Amino acid sequence: ANLGWTSCTAANLNAFEAKGHLESGLASDPYTETVKRGMNQIFAWLYADNISLELKGNPDSNMNGYGVFVNDGYQFYQGGMLMDAIVASGTPLAVAATGPAPADGNPGIQGRTYRDIVQDMVDAYAWAQWDGWPGGGWRYSANEYPDNSACQWAAIGMIAAERQWGLTVPQWVKDWNVVWLAYTQDGSGGFGYTDPGYYPWGPYATTPSGMVQMCMDGIGRGNVGWPSWDAAETFIRDGFGATGGATDAL
To answer: Which helix (H) or strand (E) holds 70?
Structure first.
């Protein structure tokens, strides 16, 4: 296992792409080849595997029976970063040149469009969502009790897939994630790491993580009920003047 190389590579690719350096760019751009090589590498780190029905619904939005996973540790911490980098390519109909080839009914990675691969990555996240109390989120492995550090990457990847490429994120995934967020947001407005009020490294990372998930779920300013965007935003604002350690002003 690469234990983090995959997501680090994807994050660096995203930085190149955000600056306009794409694998589809001009040959005169010295970074075109760099990005192309990076894209080839991240597809080589993916594989397709069977997924099945979840308790809350069918995760297989394209009905091919497969999800796409990261061939590395902490799969569902890292996968969202790869999704985000692939979508940032801006070329949904490009075809992956690397990765496992189709075999014995498995669609593989090589020879598939970026769009199809990312939809299967979304499907894998839907399949891997935590089924139990207190609601749906993600951690490192499939159906593992969540933490909001990992959950943010699921949301970041799925937001890009849905908004930029029109891919399907099942509504039941969003609805079940709202239950998780309602549990982990405490009365201060902050989001805990694994439980409300639990801030092992301070609240100013896990609270924005909860807000990213609310973006995925369609919750924003003025939303009535809990979880509350306004409460989280106010919590962040009121902590801006804090000095000292990460947990200052709690």
So the answer is: strand 66-70
